[in-house]
Structure formats: C-alpha cells, structure tokens
Specification:
Length: 467
C-alpha cells in the first residue's frame, strides 16, 4: 500500500537532486557572458522527461567529456533555463520569475509543449502587460511557432484593430515581407486604404535605406528597386477605395511603382465613377471620429466607465460592450478657447476629454459623467476618472486614476480666462486649458510633470449599452 504523500515526497526528493547537483552527469551552461549560469543535471531524468534531451544526449549528438555530458545554451537566459529544469524535475511551471516570452521561445526549442501552452495562456490572459509593451514582437514570434496559432491570430486581430496608429510606429517598419503580406491580406484593418498605401511606401523605403525619401530624386535604379520591393503588395491594396483627391496627392506621385494596366484601371474608374468623399475603412466596425485615439484606447475607456479593469475580448475576440463616442469638439478644427468649449460642450453629459501632449507625446484626459456649465465651483461625483495612454497602441500599460475626493471631482469655471481656475478635473489634477496636472483630488498622477503643452484635444459624448 503506497503512502498518500508519496507523490509529494518523491517530487521533493527529485527537487533536492536538482538543487544539490549530487550524482549529476550533465553540465549545462545557459546564457551569454558575463551572465552565464551553470546547471548540474541528470541525464536519465532529462531523457525521460524531455524529447529534446533524448536526442541531445544521444551518442550521435553528444559525447561525454570525462564523466559528464556538456551542453551549451547561450541563446537561453539562465533564469529561463532554471524554470525549464524546475518543470522537468518537478512538473511545476512557475511563470512569475522569468520573462514569459523568453520562456515561450525556449520551451518551443526544448520541445516542452505544456510550457508553451501555459505561456501562451498566460499572455492571452494578461495580454495588456505584454501586448502594450511589444505587440509587433509577439506577432513575429507567434508566427514562427506552430504551437502558437491562437496567440498569433489574437496579435494579428489586435494589430488590425489599431492599424492606423501602428502604421506610424517604428517597429512596424521592421516587419519582414512574409509577415507584412499576411497582415495586409486581412479585410478588417481599421485604417483608410490611403494610409495603408502610405505605410507601404514608408516600409519599402526602410528596406532600401539608400533611396531618398523624395520621389523626385529617384534614379532609374531606385525606381526598379522600389518596384521589386512593393510588387507582392500591390494586389493587396484596394486602390479603388482611395478617394480621387487622395489618389492624386498620395498615390500618383509614385505612379511608376504601379503597372500600366493598374494605372489605367484606376484612371478609368475615377473618370466613369463619382469618387467617394469619405475615408473608407476595411473594418466593418464603426470607429470614433478621432485623430488622437485608437480602438484599444476607446475599448479601455469604455471598460473603465463600467468600473472594469481592462477590455474583455473573450466573447469571440469581440468586446462585449457596444459603445458610441460622438465627437463634439476638436481643437485643431474648432479652436482651443474656453468659449469654444462652452459653446460646443456646455450642459452635455458623459464627456470624455482626450488631450495629446507634446514633448513628451502622451494622450491624457478624463471622464466626466456629469456635465460642465458656466459657473465657478465644483461638481460632485464618485464615477469620474483621469487617465494616460501612449500615443501609439501597446507601447505602455494604460494608467487610470479614479477620483478620491468626490466633492472636488469636476471643476467648473466661467468660460472667459480665469488665472486661478480652469475647466477640468479635481483641484488641478487635470486643468485642460491651463495645462496643469497637480495631484490633489484623484488617486495618482497621470503625467510625469506638473505642466504640459497641448498639441490637440478632442471631446466626445459617450453612449454605452449592453447586448
């Protein structure tokens, strides 16, 4: 009759073998100098538990040096390899003490399917912590791993939803051709077709760094090189969806990149068909009219309004919340004065303010569930909050600061200039026109400095409902 604690005792004993290195006959060096970490392990355990080591420790692949096998793994960090050995010896997969993405890559190389699955599940569950830091890298990595198709599709979809902003990022310019072709084949890219074309030109120039940006300065060889670079992408661009004025301004200067028959068809289309005067998106989902925000930003704000922590895409990768952000005001279009704000936004409830700052570039703002009106004083609420986002999706984790002193949640003032007061949130936590962020009435700061310079701002009225 076996002891009910046999499994625990057995695992503890095996774990002590790994920790002490007693009876070991394998030496594994992981990491690059000067951060090399040396592990002592046991070939019988490694072979029994891991298909990679069954091959790596076979006579055909590895010979004993003295009385030990020696394995070099400079491409795997010491902390990551330590997690792998712990799993092999004990069956425990602890993800907190090492880089989960690095562990995913190492586990795929070592052929440990369970760790790959656990890492993928961890990233999908806690995706803001990963995607907001390096979405493009995760897309590249998951594209290389057959066991990460779910993660790859999730990354691809998040990128498609935020395509217009990601096209402006440096990371996207480094995508290899095959991955970019795969991405541009999607029919749900949340970006006007002309912006997809503009990105393609930038990407092609990045692949040919010796070619000048000014198309007028291109030599015949430059044109030939650019034609070869974009050739596989031209069938993916929906040129007939590009309005005529955008085609003339942004596509026609590069007409030598297009085959003659394509140019002829585009010309014939615009001559015989009334050109569209709107910026068509591939996506069927209606995006807010914004020049500052992006889809993940609006999804996150919608979730925060409902007192959630982060968007939930578990329902078929679609956000369960349906929302409408109605643009009331854009500074660069309507003006930056308090009088314009009063005329456009006075007595309108459920307002979200987005401010794009400069030097540094951030998106900050706040949610007012009540309304602003022309009087001096405060409006009390427990549901307001202020926030910060990166100007490009997934570069940093969004930050929310909920109201702490509800009595001073919303600041009211006269529309004319007031040296001591301003329209905004708290007692200076976010003053829109004075450009100050001084922590007083909310939980935490949303800007690294107490003052900011506004580049542009938008005000939306929010309507939310559930399916």
């Amino acid at each position: 009759m076996s002891s009910p604690n046999f499994k625990k005792i057995f695992i503890d004993d095996i774990s002590r073998l790994l920790k002490s290195g007693r009876y070991s006959n394998v030496e594994i060096r992981a990491g690059e100098a000067p951060n090399v970490k040396v592990f002592r392990a046991h070939s019988v355990i490694l072979r029994a538990r891991c298909p990679y080591f069954r091959t790596a420790l076979s006579p055909a692949w590895n010979t004993e040096s003295g009385d030990k096998f020696k394995i070099e793994k400079p491409n795997i960090k010491g902390t990551v390899f330590e997690a792998i050995l712990r799993y092999i010896y004990t069956g425990k997969c602890i993800l907190q003490n090492c880089d989960v993405v690095d562990l995913l890559l190492a586990a795929d190389e070592i052929l440990l399917v369970e760790i790959v699955t656990r890492c993928q599940d961890k990233i999908l569950k806690d995706y803001p912590l990963f995607f907001e830091q390096d979405l493009v890298r995760l897309y590249e990595i998951s594209s290389q791993l057959n066991s990460c198709t779910e993660l790859n599709e999730f990354c691809s979809k998040r990128m498609a939803e935020n395509a217009a902003s990601l096209f402006k990022s440096v990371e996207f310019l480094n995508l290899n051709e095959n991955l970019l072709v795969s991405f541009l084949k999607r029919d749900d890219l949340a970006s006007p077709e002309v912006e997809i074309w503009e990105f393609l030109v930038k990407w092609a120039l990045a692949q040919n760094p010796n070619i000048p940006e000014q198309v007028e300065a291109w030599s015949e060889q430059d044109i030939s090189d650019m034609q070869n670079t974009v050739e596989n992408f031209l069938p993916l661009i929906k040129f007939l969806e590009i309005p005529g004025k955008d085609y003339l301004a942004k596509v026609r200067p590069y007409k030598k990149l297009l085959p003659d028959d394509l140019r002829s068809n585009i010309k014939k289309y615009h001559i015989t068909t009334k050109s569209k005067d709107y910026r068509s998106l591939r996506t069927t989902e209606l995006l807010p009219d914004t020049q500052i925000g992006y889809k993940y930003l609006f999804d996150t704000i919608s979730t925060w309004i409902l007192r959630g922590d982060k968007p939930d895409y578990s329902n078929g990768n679609q956000l369960a919340i349906r929302y409408n952000f109605k643009l009331l005001l854009r500074g660069s279009r309507d003006g930056f004065s308090r009088q314009v704000f009063g005329r456009k936004c006075a007595n309108e409830g459920n307002l979200v303010v987005l401010i794009r700052t400069k030097n540094p570039t951030r998106i900050i703002g706040g949610y007012n569930p009540r309304f602003w009106e022309e009087e001096n004083g405060w409006r009390e609420t427990k549901h307001s909050f202020i926030f910060r986002f990166s100007d490009v999706p997934f570069q940093e984790v969004p930050h929310i600061s909920r109201v702490k002193n509800e009595k001073y949640a919303i600041n009211l003032t006269k529309w004319e200039y007031n040296f001591f007061n301003d329209i905004g949130f708290g007692r200076g936590d976010l003053y829109i026109f004075k450009g100050t962020c001084q922590l007083r009435s909310y939980e935490s700061e949303i800007f690294e400095e107490e003052t900011f310079k506004m580049d542009d701002y938008e005000v939306f009225q929010v309507e939310l409902f559930f399916e």
